[in-house]
């Protein structure tokens, strides 16, 4: 099976159909980052489309100096941040579609609440902290890959993650305090 | 290791971005310090909460939409381009192109200078007289009687 870098060189040579393999391989990651960052389906979809098209147009200039995924995360992150500056926050209480199977109505409700809670708190983080948390926790990237994707140092990644997590931890704790039943408060 | 050092390295430790030796020192400190152990547990709990949050579903037609637009771009790219420059321009080396651009700039500057000189000579008193004569030739002198501030007065002022 060809690597991403080999496929990109084929695309650079004019094979448009080969690009479909790149899209199919990476659309899930790109979508996940964009949706979690922007919190809005239409905006996230636009960003993912724009990101792949930018990569397609730039294919003739593509040089496999780093992993393709790093290149993709870089493009998606930049577009997300640009888009976030232009749009107003449109967070609603409506949860996203959950793709994993939910065996019961109760577990679905719990999962839905948790997703909404985390998404809500994540959306309140400053842009750079938010993208660092997303790349680390949802995409499983190490500090080096995050640094390469965001074009910052590893030390800066550590700082962004530390600040982002600290804020999330505080906000999630206060959210739970707000929704805790009266019996819990007494205990 | 003390608590300050532990807190400094806690994120790297939780993310397994730390050397074996430093990690071992962190583990030992966490075992003996309740406050730091609690801090670490909270951090790990947040990590679990984030990673277990399900991935939202991808829009059904996403890949097809991207490929449709990519193919459109590809077709547009293959369409014959409008040539603004002669073919020989592409064959020139970079220094030759720079030399050609400098020559063009010099030529344009020289042209502008000559044009400015001619224009300056054109504003001689005789030329003004010709224009005044033209007013007379077209019998526009009666406009002198027009009230002050009128359009006719403005025309006369401009032609004097």
Task: Report on the architecture of this protein.
Chain A is built from nine helices and no strands. The radius of gyration of chain A is 19 Å and the shape is globular. Chain A is 73% helix and 0% strand. Chain A has two domains: 1-91, Orthogonal Bundle (Rna Polymerase Sigma Factor, Chain: A); 102-187, Arc Repressor Mutant, subunit A (Orthogonal Bundle), CATH 1.10.10.10. Chain B has two domains: 3-51, no CATH class; 88-159, no CATH class. Helices cover 72% and strands 0% of the residues of chain B. With 160 residues, chain B is mainly α. Chain B is built from eight helices and no strands. The chains are: A mainly alpha (187), B mainly alpha (160). The interface between A and B is large, with 43 and 28 residues.
Task: Outline the fold blueprint.
The complex is a heterodimer of chains A (187) and B (160).
Chain A: H1 4-12, H2 19-38, H3 41-58, H4 68-86, H5 105-123, H6 127-138, H7 143-150, H8 154-179, H9 182-186
Helix pairs in contact in A: 2-3, 2-4, 2-6, 3-4, 4-6, 4-7, 5-8, 6-8, 7-8
Chain B: H1 3-14, H2 20-32, H3 34-51, H4 62-78, H5 87-91, H6 94-122, H7 125-137, H8 151-159
